[in-house]
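2024-03-11 09:14:02 DEBUG pipeline.ingest accepted 1 chain
2024-03-11 09:14:02 DEBUG pipeline.ingest length=223
2024-03-11 09:14:03 DEBUG pipeline.predict start
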Amino acid sequence: MTAQATGLIIAAGSSVRMEGTDKIFAPILGRPIISYSIQAMEECPDIESIILVVSSDNLAKAGLLFESGSCSKIKSVVAGGERRQDSVRIGLSQVQNSHWTVIHDGARPFITSEMISGSLAHASINGSAVAAVPVKDTIKIVDESLNVTDTLARNQLWAVQTPQVFETKVLRRAHDKIKQNVTDDASMMEAIGEKVSIFQSEYSNIKVTTEEDMRLLEILMND
């Protein structure tokens, strides 16, 4: 890589589907879930600095990771906002001289340093990089009565993940312009007419959102 990159780890969700469990600091093989994302960025030579965005309730816990010195690339730990995009915007305000910003969900612990380097290599050629995998299942559109109204062409469908890599200055412009709710930063970039390029990720790059996901995660990590 010839350009600087900052890793922005977003972990400010409320874990409402986890039945009271704080998924970000839930232990998996004796380590909090977020530590796996931090380690991947710490070990990636293309990442110069890391910013953690957590809920206000987790500032103290995240601060211990920062203060321990075990992760030398962590530059700041900040409290997120009400929506995911608010949290990204807050984290983005901490990014300094990096050409690229790599956004990753802290609840996706299967990220690797190789995946991050690959995403940045893809972005350097294509202008952006969004992790995704081809959809395996048939996707139906249904109405309010759960009746099928359409079947989508599966060969054109991809399930989007993180990391997502964009030029920092363009990402800031998108956050300045787009105020309506969006599901991810790729959607925001699409809304301002920017090119969004997909790279094929791994199916194992799952996001922990439920207790069932936690059990699956433990199985996969013990394999």
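2024-03-11 09:14:41 DEBUG pipeline.report The mean pLDDT is 90.
2024-03-11 09:14:41 DEBUG pipeline.predict end
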